[in-house]
Task: structure prediction
Amino acid sequence: MQQFLRIFLDIVLWRRGPQDLPVSGLLLGLTVAAYVVVSAAQLALLGETAATWLFFVIVDPMLLAAWTWLVLRIYGRTERFAQTATAVFGTSALLGLAVYLPIQFLLSALGAGPESGLAQILALLLVVAFALVTGRILKLATETNMITGIAIALTYFLLVNLLVGLLRGTGG
Result:
């Protein structure tokens, strides 16, 4: 397992790509499970509603997998789905565990709520990190360019935020 954690870290640091992961349904399942566990920890720290929990624990992983498959289908690269989805879920879980959760603990300790300026700046930096890491994974998987990969990643991010906004009644 340590070997895979190194690969995910190397993907985050742009030293490797999804092609360096094995085609494994088991590994994909484990990374989805890790993604859900990290999401649950984030939701618990934020004190989110049951509807938000339902969305991020069930709908978001299914939507992210479907989005990844659709992108690969559009580019004629569906044979890369297992590796690409594993990379996306694994790096997202790693970033959440190693970056987001510690920052959230720190903000809580400082008494800075999610609406504080510091929290907003850190949230923006996390979106940038997600866009760069996931964008590069999609760039490599689709054999396009970095702008396209980032655009695809940000489109997914905006879609999820729109859906969560609709769920919460804030309209996105």
